[in-house]
Prior knowledge:
Blueprint: E1 2-6, E2 12-18, E3 22-25, E4 32-35, E5 39-46, E6 66-71, E7 76-80, H1 89-104, H2 106-112, H3 116-125, H4 131-138, H5 143-157, H6 159-172, H7 174-186
Antiparallel strand pairs: 1-2, 2-5, 3-4, 4-7, 5-6
Helix pairs in contact: 1-6, 2-5, 3-4, 3-6, 4-5, 5-6, 6-7
Amino acid sequence: xxxxxxxxxxxxxxxxxxxxxxxxxxxxxxxxxxxxxxxxxxxxxxxxxxxxxxxxxxxxxxxxxxxxxxxxxxxxxxxxxxxxxxxxxxxxxxxxxxxxxxxxxxxxxxxxxxxxxxxxxxxxxxxxxxxxxxxxxxxxxxxxxxxxxxxxxxxxxxxxxxxxxxxxxxxxxxxxxxxxxxxxxxx
Length: 187
């Protein structure tokens, strides 16, 4: 059994009932739950905010979604997270530049990105957004509202989602990226 929906804060939630012991993979998040016995696991993608102090991380910063996971009866024995890539120094600099671009040009991107679904399709194929988020963006109009929803996802997903958005935007709408980057260098 699988129940998906949103809570009062608009966050995507899921509750999965596992009828016996074993490993089960979520089709949306790619999380793998290893169960000792039958039970229900409730989980959602949460935001990196004041409720989650990041003190003591030093140079490190969040680079993926934060999950809130609860197993009422305690039958969840292990959790396997989707693969993450290890970054070298050059790709870390690229990540920071891409994330900074997305943050710096928020207003302009909300107003000027004209084909949001083309970008969202790419983000979905890279498992950067959930199927529910994809559907929400797809059924929203106009493109500025689609971008506001996408920015909400990028904020909760961290630098990795912003960088992927930047890469796709650079590929799909290079003139917009070049124009915004050129404007930044003149300032």
